[in-house]
């Protein structure tokens, strides 16, 4: 009898978990991670800490549209002089995320375009930036997964995106981030 009760309890608990519906609506997402440049620039700029903020709207359970802001800080590895210089890379734009969900786990791919600004001319020395040029168009794409917490409005996720900056000697980089997402709404 106890065995049957234990089996029924596990089945009920499993059913409640599988039937948990994620919120859809307006969302805000904040993340921390790192940006690592790919070989054409990696010899001149080190891996740096990054943070990002995304806000948007779930149009459907499988499609989200949003805007993002991101910033990262990098130490240059240029030959002296100058020595021990840092620069910041600021990015912003719009993107779309397409995904699906299986229970509490969601998988997605995302991509978008925007603009970026570099804070310093320190990379002019190695011709990554041109004199007086600090702005570039940005294109990015990537994917990740998200775990929906017990409260259906919250999710924890891991995402990895690649981006390219054509006006900065076609600088390419990988951004990886952990994030917390909050969705307003019940649909």
Keyphrases for this structure?
mainly beta, single chain, 2 helices, eight-stranded antiparallel beta barrel, elongated, Porin
Describe the protein's architecture and organization.
This protein has a single domain (2-184), classed as Porin (Beta Barrel), CATH 2.40.160.20. By secondary structure, the chain is mainly β. It has two helices and eight strands; from the N terminus they run αβαβββββββ. It is 11% helix and 58% strand. The chain has an eight-stranded antiparallel barrel. The model is unreliable at 10-18 (pLDDT under 50). It is elongated, with a radius of gyration of 21 Å. β4 and β5 (105-118) form a beta hairpin.
Widest beta sheet: strand line-up:
1-2-3-4-5-6-7-8
- Taking all residues together, what is the mean pLDDT? 87
* Computed Rg: 21 Å
Helices and strands, in order, run as: HEHEEEEEEE
* Large-scale geometry: elongated
Looking at the structure, the CATH topology is Porin
End-to-end separation: 40 Å
What portion of the residues fall into strands of 2 or more residues? over 45%
Q: Label the CATH architecture.
A: Beta Barrel
Quick overview of this protein structure:
The protein has 187 residues and is mostly beta strands.
Helices and strands in order, then pairings?
Elements lengths: L1 H17 L7 E12 L1 H4 L5 E13 L2 E13 L10 E17 L2 E14 L16 E14 L5 E12 L5 E14 L3
Antiparallel strand pairs: 1-2, 1-8, 2-3, 3-4, 4-5, 5-6, 6-7, 7-8
């Amino acid at each position: 009898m106890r065995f049957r009760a234990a089996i029924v309890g596990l089945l009920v608990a499993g059913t409640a978990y599988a039937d948990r519906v994620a919120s859809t609506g307006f969302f805000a997402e904040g993340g921390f991670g790192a940006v690592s440049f790919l070989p054409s620039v990696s010899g001149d700029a080190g891996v740096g800490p990054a943070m990002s903020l995304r806000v948007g709207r779930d149009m459907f359970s499988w499609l989200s549209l949003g805007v993002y802001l991101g910033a990262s800080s990098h130490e240059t590895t240029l030959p002296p002089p100058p020595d021990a210089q840092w620069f910041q890379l600021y990015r912003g734009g719009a993107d779309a995320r397409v995904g699906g969900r299986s229970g509490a786990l969601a998988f997605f791919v995302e991509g978008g375009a925007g603009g970026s600004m570099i804070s310093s001319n320190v990379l002019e020395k190695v011709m990554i930036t041109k004199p007086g040029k600090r702005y570039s168009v940005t294109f990015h794409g990537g994917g990740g997964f998200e775990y929906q917490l017990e409260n259906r409005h919250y999710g924890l996720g891991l995402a990895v995106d690649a981006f390219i900056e054509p006006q900065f000697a076609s600088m390419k980089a990988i951004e990886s981030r952990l994030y917390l997402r909050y969705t307003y709404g019940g649909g």
